[in-house]
Amino acid sequence: MSNVTVIGFGSIGSAVAGIAVKAGSATQVLVRDPEKVEELAGATIEKIGAPITGEVVVLALPYPAIAGVIEAYGPAAFAGKIVVDPSNPVDFETLDSVVAPGSSTAAEIAAQLPGAKVVKAFNTNFAATLASGTAAGQTTVVSAASDSAEAKDALRGIVEGAGLKFSDAGELKRAARLEAIGIHGIYLAVTEQISWTGGLLITK
């Protein structure tokens, strides 16, 4: 099982870190202020700036914060690693995407980190469904898009190792579609048409 580093410990970060621990991955969590973060059994919590130990790195950060963390570490720190982007680049005032039409956060990250294998994943799932492993009584399904089959296989191992299901969404260019789905889910939740424990349901 791949070692995992989760940068950020908000609702998505804590849920994904929990998945990694449950799957049996050695898990590092990097945050700005470790003293303000509750301990997670099975994970090591350190300050952002500490060396990244995971082979799989999850950038569990708000979209505006991603560029700053990448700049602080530098592209070399991510070279050869699988970098997972669970962000949804949404303007919460308009509930529209803030990236150019046809592009995605994942594409921007891939351009900044040419030596990494970038995966778009976890963004179509609300944190509660990742933490519980269920949505509407069904096992949560994590969709992932990447140009690297190796990266998707590694992520599949973690997701399925934690008891969730995995779906292959295709190449990284499909990340724009996943972000559109994620933002639509946020729109439905913000406008109180669904709850934050619901969302997109994929059944097999």
UniProtKB/TrEMBL annotation:
Alphabetically ordered keywords of this record: Oxidoreductase
Domain Pyrroline-5-carboxylate reductase catalytic N-terminal, chain residue ranges per copy:
4-89
One GO MF term: oxidoreductase activity
The entry's protein name is: Dinucleotide-binding enzyme
- Native source species: Corynebacterium vitaeruminis DSM 20294
